[in-house]
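re: that chain from earlier
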Amino acid sequence: EVDMVVGNIHKSRIPEMVGRMVRGEPLEAEFKREGQRDWSPSLRDATAIRRLPEGRSRPFVKVQDGCNYVCSFCIIPTARGKSRSLSMEEVAATVNGYADAGAKEIVLTGIHLGHWGRDLEPKRRFGDMLEELIARTHSVRFRISSLEPNEVDKKVIDLVAESDRVCPHLHVPLQSGDDATLGRMRRVYRTPWYTKVIKDFHERVPNGTWGADVMVGFPGEDERAFEQSYRFLESIPFTYLHVFPYSQRRGTEASSMPDQIHPQVKRARSQRLIELSDMRRAEHAEKRLGQTLKVLIEGRRVGGRLRGYSECYVPVTLDGDDSWMNQLLPVQISAVTNGIAVGRVCE
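^ sequence. v structure.
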């Protein structure tokens, strides 16, 4: 027997609803669909922020929900609806709430982050929000969770290059390095554009970090297409990959496409890309030997040692006191093992 069905936008109210059920109070159905703002993501009220989320040294601030794209493998537009944004005032208030609670770094996130502001009046762009946050908020540093290749514009790159409050780190989904596969995925770019964007980024941010999502085993991705994708990845200066096998999602166009790929083939292709990613990640960390990085120390130990991430997303371990947790500290890198840097706090 089902007592309650709760939509995604009301999930933050589940504890309240359960409490009302336990107390025997009636639950009233809520169906608000008078406009996109009624479907805004249910985020933490900035006025209620008194401490950091448990176990997190870098809170995530979700500024956008939904997606207007129609990628053939993705069910998100059906599940979450059209793109909608928090107002600039709501975003700034939330960031300042976390800053007052002690946050040193904030991750800006969304289902389709680069579409922030497209539904506001007047229309805004993600770069506008980032620029205004730097001006209107306390001195936390910002990390950008993920932007589509066609949304990494000059303003975003300039802010990453010029502001010490924006981590020199972008994560930009690729999905495939084969243009025919990108076409079947209904992605809105092709590999020449991706090459241009990553080149523009590294020209302005020479020591920057670039991550990418790559999907393997999309329907119709034969050996030729996978090898083309692999060669493309070898040719571009990425730092690390998030590799995942294609999985069918009922209701998507791709789920009924012919030439589905065998799971064993997907695993083998994933492993090759993971090995390539591990090599690039290690090279990226090794370039930091002897450098002093700004490391945010996390609120837990790993193997008895403190651990954190630098502005350029290098994992760093070090010895030290618990009082350093959730502090942004200068750490000199003395060694690198398997892509993880070892350092000591500069006096």
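The mean pLDDT is 91.
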